Structure to design on (215 residues):
């Protein structure tokens, strides 16, 4: 009898994101399409809003109170082979909503449930130099404590290094420039990089998932 276990050819990729004004959601839509294009199983989730409705209304926001996907739970991370996190920059790091979600994962940390899984990120920032790279970098302690392996996209798509137009994107992952008033929308290249990141990451994770099933 052959000693090989059945191959699980489709990795499960969880896409968790928080979006205040829609910029991250626009990128998330493309990331999800990219994961699907790889043939992987994608499970999208929204990271729960922590601000009250009254505050969001003063910020001319509020769509985050009515997300189009289920709210993310720690269990969603446990069930995934790879995790893609999307959130806007707040002073060069992740916003409080994402930190609050991270704080819920203590049980996963205690059991080592995320050790060896893969993770990547995408973001948005007000300007060209606001937090397109630092948002990922300042998240590394969380990844390290959980044993998550970060997968950057480097310059694996020419659009990432484009200098002809004002755009986001970095070797760490897709991003977009929102403008200080949130008026700037993702460019065609921003969306292209987001789609590429979803597919690139899912393909990467899939390679390891299939390899692990070979006894």
């Amino acid at each position: 009898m052959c000693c090989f276990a059945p191959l699980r050819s489709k990795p499960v990729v969880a896409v968790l994101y928080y979006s205040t004004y829609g910029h991250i959601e626009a990128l998330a839509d493309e990331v999800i399409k990219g994961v699907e294009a790889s043939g992987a199983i994608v499970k999208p989730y929204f990271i729960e809003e922590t601000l009250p409705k009254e505050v969001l209304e003063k910020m001319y926001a509020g769509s985050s109170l009515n997300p189009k996907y289920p709210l993310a739970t720690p269990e969603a991370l446990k069930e995934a082979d790879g995790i893609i996190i999307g959130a806007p920059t707040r002073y060069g790091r992740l916003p409080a909503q994402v930190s609050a979600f991270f704080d819920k994962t203590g049980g996963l940390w205690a059991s080592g449930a995320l050790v060896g899984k893969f993770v990547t990120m995408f973001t948005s920032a007000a300007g060209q130099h606001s937090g397109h790279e630092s948002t990922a970098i300042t998240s590394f302690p969380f990844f390290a404590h959980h044993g998550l392996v970060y997968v950057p996209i480097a310059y694996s798509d020419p659009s990432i290094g484009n200098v002809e137009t004002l755009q986001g994107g970095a070797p760490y992952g897709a991003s977009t420039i929102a403008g200080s008033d949130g008026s700037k929308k993702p460019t065609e290249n921003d969306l292209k990089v987001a789609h590429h990141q979803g597919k690139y990451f899912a393909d990467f994770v899939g390679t390891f998932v299939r390899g692990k099933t070979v006894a």
Summary: Residues 10-212 form a domain with the Rossmann fold fold (CATH 3.40.50.360). The helical segments are 23-37, 53-58, 74-79, 96-102, 106-111, 134-137, 140-146, 188-212.
